[in-house]
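Notebook, p. 212. Picked up where the previous page left off. The plan for this session was modest: take the two constructs that came back from the sequencing core last week, fold each one, and keep the raw output in the notebook itself so nobody has to go hunting through shared drives later. Recording the first one now, exactly as returned: residue sequence, then the structure token string.
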Amino acid sequence: MNIKDREDIRLSGSAGVRDAVDALRRGALIGLPTETVYGLGADAGNPAAVAKIFAAKQRPADHPLIVHLHRAAQLAQWARDIPALAWSLAEAFWPGPLTLVLPRAATVSDGVTGGLDTVALRVPAHPLALDVLEAFGGGIAAPSANRHKKISPTTARHVREELGDAVEVLLDGGPCRVGIESTIVDLSTGLPRLLRPGAITGEDLERVTGKPVESPVDTAIRSPGRMKLHYAPNARVVLASMEQVPERIAEYAALSARVGVLSARRAESWPAQVPWLSMGHSPDQQAQQLYRRLREADDMDLAVLIVVPPDGRGLNHALRDRLWRAAGLGHALA
């Protein structure tokens, strides 16, 4: 029975962990809370279970998954030729929102890696996820629990609404603390490459590695979160500066489109009838609220969402990346 057929989704504690582990061992899918977003979890060592992830998400089979581990000591079970840099980053940031891309071990299936010679690994910083990983003992492949290219879930209810028909056990760990996906760093080619920005910033990485971190813009690189269109609501996302917002409102209102605005503040000059969604003021708040606000735009049946992206580096760069991709523009320049 999938979780859409049950009234109670608030599974937590030891009973929820046991149910989740039992489901994983039977090759079923679970909804797994992490500090970043909720994941759609399967036994990473079971190719048939991993295939269910792609079917549920309607995700291309050549798109690699992230394998979640309980502790850094498990790296050697999934990767080979692990550089010292990987251990340094794991010690500094695990458990936490950092994914390391390393040469894959021979036993790792193509389904997990998308046929690549590398594997993406991380240890999440969520107590419920860590309890499941410890009890399960193996790796859990867990991309975000949403349809391909759509908005990542940051609550258990989001998972139930979008993928409840595919999930047998849904663990409710509350709202995600970070709110956007993990930073992805490729260590397979020598110097570290930042494949996806996140809460662990390039500056954070360079402080630990003592090396410059490259940020490739090559869209042919296959990695989670690098598609030109990603994290997208049903509403069309249009990026604008604060000064451009009135012009954009008038432009789309003239087409009889229902328009809303997502920004850190509202200007008095904007029409009162135009819905305003607050992005929050600090970068941490904005990351926590971003996907929730994009879902609210869809709940309001907006045709167009005008978004004022945050300025600056660090976490703001990661937020701009998500917004550029939600608008179908691909890579956001730092």
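Okay, moving on. Second construct, recorded in the same format:
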Amino acid sequence: MAPGMSRLLARVTFVAGTCCATACAVASCTSDEGSEPPPEADAGNEEAPPPTTTEPVDAGVHVEHPDAAPFDGGPRDVVCESSRCATALVTTLGANANDRAEGFCALLNDGTVACWGANGGGQLGRGDDAGSLDGPSAERVVGIEGATRLDHTCALDKTGAVRCWGTGPHLRDGGGTITTDRTPVTLPLAPVATMGIGAEVGCAVVDEGIVCWGRNFHGQVAPFTSSAPGTALAPAPVDLPLGAPIRALVVSKASFVLREDGTLVSWGANPPLGRLSSLFPDPTPTPIDLAGVSSLDSSYESACATVAGIGYCWGDIVERLHEYVNPAAPRIDRALPEPVVTPEPIVRIATTRSMYTRGTYGIMFTTPQRWCAVGASGAIYCWGFNESGQAGDGTKLDVLSDAVKVQGLPGPAADVKTTPNATCALLTSGKVYCWGSNYYGQLGSGNLKVPSLTPQEVALP
């Protein structure tokens, strides 16, 4: 690899990034039966012309393009074309930090939710009698009606009630203990306006402000300093700095608040804090130096956002296949948001975590992360890890440095979601298409272990 090429992600150039170490092993091959995720894991049209309004710059440097028209595009709305229609799409969570998180859920236009894929932690919500069998077909979560919003395996309804299924901080005991619930349970919270639910921590906006709860490994739940790491804590208020109303909450190893004015606040683990801090973790909610944010995605130790058609990413970013890692040593490849250059302006960006695999003598290696973005035209572009064809261009090249356009989508996309081994897109028609590995049924095709290098439609119930 030529000098500097390790910084290239998708014609997506992280200019101020930290150079990666030399890869420790050659790329591996996959079979036609689909790519099984690593056995041990720690812990998504017409070709648009290349944009002329973005340039890679050093992190933290403001970019101005005086000769370019301002980008005023945003995510496209879903307009249902049939009675089987999805209005939102999310990924599921694994049973714990070491479990597979290879599944998807869709909010349907009738207020119900359908899920498919891995089910080791009950994340498909099919009831206590369904067991933990993976689900290759999209089926409705039992007992969910009137849902208006999804975050992973939690649904918010029009009354402000939050119901969750799978494995997570479901407040079954009034505290932050992690439980597995194959049938949805109602969280004992005051009426909620919006929520962000992670594998071990949940946060919600209520009348009094933000409350968070769960296992406090990363300083995301108060009291931040007086509780031992990992202590399960009941909902407690978060003291946010003054600012505009809250638009969204995103929870991974750090917690993020996206305000209506496009500003971000973060606290928790570092990475993916997105700002300079001498604390690890940093429990104090503090603004990130990134303005005009329209969308945000975070997975474990990495995060990405869109600003005026440009993607910005930060955190632990693994670019090479089989890179040696020391899991006990914190790594921050990019502490601050850095711009990426994509084939056209983008309105959404999705990221995944890197996965650790244990080799000979317990040595840990990584599989690279991957990213997908929705362009202003509605086209989808993917790059990064592609061992199972999850980039959607018909290839199974191990790692894609350049963004490729997903082939075969019958219409423009409203959103895209990614797991390490599969990708699903929500089209503006309300249809859902998936591609990549199908080892756990995450393509929703009705079959297990039959992968697809190009998008195929999910049969929604």
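Notes on construct two before I forget. The first strand starts at residue 86 and ends at 91.
Flagging for discussion at group meeting.
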